[in-house]
Amino acid sequence: MSRGRAGSVLDALRGGLVVSCQAYPGEPMRDPRTMAQVAVAVVAGGASAVRAQGVEDVRLVRASVDVPVVGIWKEGSDGIVITPTLEHARAVRDAGADVVALDGTRRPRPDGLTLAQTVAALRADGEVIVMADCGSLDDARAAVDAGVDLVGTTLAGYTGERPRTDGPDLALVRDLLAALPGVPVVAEGRIHTPAQARACLTAGAFAVCVGTAITHPTTITGWFRDGLA
């Protein structure tokens, strides 16, 4: 990716809505072709970028939309799950992701590499935009020191360092902006309404990533069912 391309990807993300198109194993929509169709649908609705999970999903989504693709590869259920190793990160990049997102916490990585070593190895392969999914301010500081380009609040409330907020962790967004001037902060996690998304941008987030509230009909249906109870 040329420097011009990297700049255009970040420009596309700035102030925009990233939509995470994922389905969990065993669910009816857990098919790369379905997720690619969902990606096309959210882009038609105005998504500035799409987040996709799994190598085949990333490949098909990349071929189906003309907006940046944030790629991850989830494996396992405990500890580091989001693009946990250098091998996973390289596969996501090679599948066509414009941004490789990976676990940006300070926990030990399954392949024994540090986050800094992982980022350096990706950079040695060629230019790549790397996003760190973080759970705390200390995670984000360490991730920036490791050389990532963007940090996200994706894991806030899921690693034991911060309470799980009802809605997005706006306090963490503000803390990241204050502590890491100039570093793009993507608000992600428990953003369930347009008002909450707007609040993230108002707090200063570089971009907002929404998944469940847009692309997970089982959960959305449950919200309505519970509202009728």
TrEMBL record:
Pathway(s) per entry: Amino-sugar metabolism; N-acetylneuraminate degradation; D-fructose 6-phosphate from N-acetylneuraminate: step 3/5
This protein's record includes keyword Isomerase: yes
Stored Gene3D superfamilies: Aldolase class I
EC number(s) from the headed UniProt entry: 5.1.3.9
Gene Ontology BP annotations: carbohydrate metabolic process; N-acetylmannosamine catabolic process; N-acetylneuraminate catabolic process
Record keywords, A-Z: Carbohydrate metabolism, Isomerase
Species, as recorded: Lapillicoccus jejuensis
Listed CDD domains: NanE
Official protein name in the record: Putative N-acetylmannosamine-6-phosphate 2-epimerase
Top-level taxonomic group: Bacteria
Reactions the enzyme catalyzes: an N-acyl-D-glucosamine 6-phosphate = an N-acyl-D-mannosamine 6-phosphate
Function: Converts N-acetylmannosamine-6-phosphate (ManNAc-6-P) to N-acetylglucosamine-6-phosphate (GlcNAc-6-P).
A molecular function GO annotation: N-acylglucosamine-6-phosphate 2-epimerase activity
A GO-annotated cellular component: cytosol
Alphabetized Pfam families for the sequence: NanE
